[in-house]
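Hi W., the MRU complex you wanted:
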Amino acid sequence: MDASNIPTQAGPDDAIVWRDGRFFLLDQRYLPERVEFLELKTAAATARAIHAMVVRGAPAIGITAAYGVVLAGVAAYRRSTGGWQSAIQADLDELRQSRPTAVNLFWALSRMEALIGRLSQERDPSDALLQEAMLIHREDVAANRQMGEAGAALIASTTAVITHCNAGALATGGYGTALGVIRAAYAKGMIREVFADETRPWLQGARLTAWELLQDGIPVTLLADGAAASRMAQGGVDWVIVGSDRIAANGDVANKIGTYGLAVAAKHHGIKVMVAAPTSTIDMSLPSGREIPIEVRDADELLCYGGRRVAAQGAGVWNPVFDITPAELVDAIVTERGVVRSPDGKKMENLMAS
Ligand code: MRU
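Structure:
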C-alpha cells in the first residue's frame, strides 16, 4: 500500500478526505488523544465505520455514505456482468442500515440513487458518482457558512452560550452547524465564552467540541451534562446553540440525548434555544418528532467507562442516544435557506418551499 498519500495532519475541517481515488476518515474515536486516519476500501467498511462512530454527526454521516456509494460503484462496475446498477444495491442497503436517526444519511443515499438511475448501465460510473459525492460535501460546507452568518445575527448582545454534543466541522463537511454559528459569532465579538456539555456517554463535547474550539482559539469551559441548568441559573448565558440529526415537519428536533433536558432548563431560565441545521436534516415526511426513529445503542456504553466495567453487576440499561425537543421549546431553526423563528408546521412548509 502506498503510504505517501495517507493524511497525517488534520484539523477538524479535514476529517473526510477523498484523495487520488482513496477514501479516508479521521477516526473520531481516538480524538483528541491521537489524530489517526482510517482508510475505507469498500462500502461495507464505510457502513461499519459509520456504525462504529469513526465518523459521526448527521451531515458527516451523509457525506461519508455518499463517498461509500462511490466505492460501491467502482466495485460493482468491476465485478458485475449483469449490470452495475443491480450489483450496487446490496451495498446501498448496508449503508442505509448503518445508523437510523440522522436523516442526512438517507437524504445523501437518495441523492446518489437518483444519479445512479440516470447513469448508463454500460459506462463506468466512478467519475459521475465521485463528482456528486464531492458536490454534496462542498454544498454542506457552503450551507454551514451561511448558517454561521444567519445564526450569529440572532445574537443581540455579547454573551456566553451553551452547546451540546459536537455539531462542528467534525460532524459536517467542515465549519460546523452549531459550531459554525459559534465560530461566526465569536469572530464578531458576540460570544464571550462557550460552555460545552461533556455529552455522556461518548463524550463528543469533552473530546471533540473542546478540541475544535481550542484549535480556533475560542475559550471553552466543560460542564458535566447535569451541571448545565445550574450554570444557567448563575446568569450570563443568552443562548443554547445545538445541531440536529433530524427535524420533523412540525419543527420538532431530534438531537443528541440531553438536548431536550437542556431546552426545558433553558425555558425555565428565559434562555433562548437555537438549532442550526441544513435543510438536508429536515424530514418533511414525518409529521412530528414522535415518528423519528431513535437509535438505542449498546448497554456497554453505559456499563463501562474507558473500556473498564464500572456499573454494578445486574444493573439494567436504557441507552437512547437521541431525544426529541418539541418545537415549542425551540426559538429558532437556522438553515442555509433562512431562519424559522418559533417553528411550526406552516413555517417549516414555507421554508422548504422557498
Ligand atoms: O451520535 P452522534 O455523535 O452522531 O450525534 C451527533 C449529534 O447529535 C449532533 O449534535 C448532530 O448530529 C448535529 S451534527 C451537525
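The pocket of MRU is lined by residues 56-59, 102, 165, 167, 171-172, 177, 204, 243-245, 255-256, 321 (CB under 6 Å).

W.
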